[in-house]
UniProtKB/TrEMBL annotation:
GO terms for biological process: subtelomeric heterochromatin formation. Belongs to the HAT1 family. This is Histone acetyltransferase type B catalytic subunit. Gene3D superfamilies: 3.40.630.30, Histone acetyl transferase 1 (HAT1), N-terminal domain (3.90.360.10). It comes from Aureobasidium pullulans (Black yeast). InterPro entries: Acyl_CoA_acyltransferase, Hat1_N, Hat1_N_sf, Hist_AcTrfase_B-typ_cat-su. One of its GO terms (molecular function) is histone acetyltransferase activity. Pfam families: Hat1_N. Keywords: Acyltransferase, Transferase. Signal peptide: none annotated. It is an enzyme of class 2 (transferase).
Amino acid sequence: MSGSESPENSELVSAIQDQVEEWSTSSNDALHISLYRGDKVVSDFGPACTYPIFGEEEVVFGYRGLDMSLSLAAHNLRPHMDISWTEQFPQLGDIKASDIRGALDDFIPQSAFATKSRAEALADPNATNFTPPGTLLHTYTHEGRKYEIWKATLSEDGAREIMENAQILVPMFIEGGTIIALDEPWVADRWTLFTLYQVDKRLANISPYTFVGFSTSYRVFTLPDRREPAENDLALLQHNESDMDAILRRWNSKTANEDTHLLKSPLELPSRERISQFLIIPTHQGEGHGARLYDTVFKSLISPDNVCELTVEDPNEAFDDMRDTCDLTWLRKNNDDFASLAIKTKIDSAKLKATENIPVDDIVSGDAKATAR
């Protein structure tokens, strides 16, 4: 018997492939995200990726005319999910249409699937009185429009709801991004939420705030500097860094004082801040809002004396580029050594030949490099 495939089998395989393709839809193309301000769409965009939700192939099988519409209230990001199709694949044995609702359940709150119209689900009688949670940090204008950046811990009113709703977008836009678990009450003060809003107060009957982006950071506690410990650090130095969470859990207990008797709050412990999530929605990207938000986040997080370091969790290349530019700009403005750095633009052409080593010292002097380091 020949090992080659028979014409009949080849035709059958081809027919099955055609059927699969006919009933398959790109989940990236089928998912639409809209921000509503009142009854008007103010931002409309698709996801950058959907593989965390629908798998590596980013395909939904078993539907024709599939539309997955995720609507968000522009001010508080309250979600509403509507899924529709014109035709569904009839189950044949084990072959059946993808479970769309099941795939979305881990990423979108159950309330978003309520049997209400989009207008009913997003309606908010207090929308005109809405202000972002926390404290206003920075205001700026861009192309005649006003923007505000706010900061809140998750223990502040309204912050947790905004963060949980904003996180819906994380798997769709942040490579490797995950939904943050917020189960333990004692961690609420360790999470900080920064929100960026466009502000338009011309209409009196709707919220003036439209969401543009957000960032989150997490406070990680470290052991104090053993070389020059402050008085309130001495008790903590008796512990390993892995003990810090245990100390925090019993902060309000009677035994906590033996470790922390000179501290009013665990937030006074030696710490590093870690930027966990950072997102500007697609309709506002490329306008400089990311740099504005990062600069504000940076200045806010490094201001406490007990914060020794600011790190970023798994940054992508685009974020790294933006961060490098922002950090260098800050250093040039705030550090005399960096402000005086100069790059020589005239170098002997003989030193630029492919056979020569890169003339690093001719570009930036050795003394300047040593100082900058």
